[in-house]
Structure formats: structure tokens, C-alpha cells
């Protein structure tokens, strides 16, 4: 059992200092500079929580502060809520701890379960919620920059998903110095970053989400390169060598790779997912980022008509807030 003096988050980013008592129960995940635990919050309220510990050396203190700043802005049903945060000193370093909402598992855990398959309705329901989350953050000029199955948490009993881990996220700011192109986990990294672009747009997240939805549908990773170069080659095999206009729109130099014709996305994935899903994903899996639909545009597609048709079918699991938004 542990005690901490934490900042409690209220609506619209307001905060106050409060003592919390919690008990960590199990490690859920670990990265190079952070770890996530499932825990029990005992005081001032009782609930299951997730605690993300960030090793806050001098080099990474800015990253932790930016994640807190972004999460404090977030008030959306499909984005994980920051409840409290605090810091503690361990030896010569500081650990920043984020106390977050808890959902039972990640999309990656669901996918890896034996004999588990996402139903066609679940795929549409979860996809709609992910686009809703992206529409919200993109309207705030925030790019997530790490959309992948392990950063999407799920409660299947509620039919609910939430986007989590904003540790790589950035707010678009022309005054900030350019970032390096080595962003987004490789399997979900869009072509413009693989080709070296340092121009960051919301279209990055749309490519990544297209890859995630394909994975949810087929139980396969779309492009699984063993290196950034191999990842680029796999994408070029499908989409062909970028045209002169593609190069301009990606804001890159011409790739140093053999020119080749496009194999085509439909031919590449035709045996793994239905035709309507291929047509849907083609809106986001475009080598030219300017041709990808926005999250707002995605929510208007007929692909989601089945959800609208089932708004009043309470035998189907669907969160009430989704029903209300679809009914508008």
C-alpha cells in the first residue's frame, strides 16, 4: 500500500492537491522509459486504476510534462482520462506517475487471445469510436503519433474503447523546431515518415489507424518490416514508386529506391478481408497523405450505417453515448 500527495484533475484541466492511497497489483506493460500497473485506488475513492510511471530524468522531463498537459485537455468518452498525477524521487531520478482510468485489456491482448475474433459489428463499433477520438484530438491540433493495438484499451462487456498513451503526442505549432521522422511504431508508421519527412500532419494518425483496423479484421499485421528500410520496401511493393506530386505532398526528397509499378492494395489484401472493408481502408491507406480522409470525414461514411440502424436495438452491446451521437 502506498500514499502520495497528488494533483487531482477536475474538468477543463483544473487541479488541486490531494492525498491518495493506492495499491499496485500487477504489471500491465513496460517500455524503455515507462511502465504501467493495474492498481486499486483506496482513498479518496475506491476504483480500479492504471498507473503509468515515467522515469523522469532530465532528458525526459519535458516529455512527461507534455503528456500531462495534453491529457489535462482531454474530455472525451473514447480518450483515457487523467485522474491524478504526482512525482517521487528514487535515488537521483524522479518518477512521474499518471493515475489513469482502467479498462480490462488492450486491443493487442484481445487479438492475441486464442480463438478470439472481432465480429464484423465490433469492428465497425470500435472503428467508429477510434475515429471519434481522432476527430476530437485533431480538432485541437494534436497528433497522437503512436496509434497501435497496444495503445487502445477495451471493455468488451460495454462495447467501449479508449485511446491511451499520449507520450509521443504533439500539438501542431509552426513556431516549434521540426521533429525527427523517427516517430510512430514501425508497423504503423506512414510512408512520409519512412521517407524522411519532418512535416507532421494529422494524416499520420489516419494511416496508423487504417493499419490497426486491418489488423483487427484479419488478425494479421499489414506491413511487418524487420527494419525501416524493409518497411518502406513493403509499402513501395504495394503502392508503387511515388509520383512527382506524391513527393511534393509528402514533403520529401525522391526516395532512393528502385522504381516499380504498384501491386495495388486490393490485390495485396484481397484474400484476407471482405471487399467492403478493402474499399473502406483505401480511404486511409494512401501513400499521399493529402488523399487520406480526415477522421471527421470517416465518421460520415456509409460503412457505419449498420451502427445507425441498430441505435434502438438494445440487445446489441453499444455504449449509450455512441447511440446518442449516431442519432444526431
Number of strands: 11
Summarize the biggest pleated sheet.
Answer: 6 strands, antiparallel, barrel
CATH-scheme architecture of the largest domain: Orthogonal Bundle
Return the structural class.
alpha+beta
Instruction: Tell me, rounded to a whole number, the average pLDDT.
Output: 91
The global form is globular
Q: How many DSSP H or I helices?
A: 12
Summarize the helix and strand pattern as letters: EEEEHEEEHHEEEEHHHHHHHHH
Name the CATH homologous superfamily of the largest domain: Transferase(Phosphotransferase) domain 1
Widest β-sheet, arrangement of strands:
1-2-3-4-6-5
Can you walk me through this structure?
With 328 residues, this protein is an alpha+beta fold. The chain has 2 domains: 2-100, 2-Layer Sandwich (Phosphorylase Kinase, domain 1); 105-309, Transferase(Phosphotransferase), domain 1 (Orthogonal Bundle), CATH 1.10.510.10. The chain contains 12 helices and 11 strands. The protein has helices spanning 61-73, 107-112, 120-139, 191-194, 203-218, 228-239, 244-250, 265-269, 275-281, 295-298, 305-309, 320-327, and strands at 2-9, 15-30, 34-43, 47-56, 82-90, 93-100, 105-106, 142-143, 152-155, 160-163, 170-171. The strands form 3 sheets. It has a 6-stranded antiparallel β-barrel. A hairpin with a 2-residue loop joins strand 5 and strand 6. Helix 3 (120-139) packs antiparallel against helix 5 (203-218). The longest helix is centred in the middle third of the chain and has 20 residues, at 120-139. The N and C termini lie far apart (46 Å).
